[in-house]
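Researcher: Here's the sequence for the chain we discussed earlier.
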Amino acid sequence: MEQLNEDLPPALPSAVERFLTGIAVAGLFAMAVLVTTNVISRWIGRAIIPDDIQLVQELMVLVILLPIGMVTALRQHISVDLFTEKAGTGAKYLLALLGHVAGLGFSGFLLAAAWDGLKQAWRTQEYYNGVLDIPVWIGHSAFLFGIALFFVRLVMMVVIDCRALTR
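Model: Thanks. This is the structure I predict for it:
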């Protein structure tokens, strides 16, 4: 993978993050197969995959959230560096640290909301109406898992950037 910012080296992604990225890739492939099969079967005259929209929605959570720790470790988030391009390495680490701390605050709120959503979905045993009756708590637990791992990665990045600033 090409390093876009030579001043801030990427952190080493863990084996768990690499594994979860692989699961996300498999989920993306499964989504493509689901959608393609359903489009072709509808074109022929009868949709053969029940609840395809709910299945794709649940897979989307995995595809987006599972690799986010790897993206964070590699410092590959979308960024605009128009004003920071000429900044020194220390200033870039400071700005990266500020971004990670802000991300911790934001993901902390998401973590709390995901926990509340999972508790509610579990307590009510709510499910999506359809042929498969997919329980809502499955998607909520996947969301909570992904956000929790992202939160842990952000904590690790704060430590890495603080160490780099104190050198």
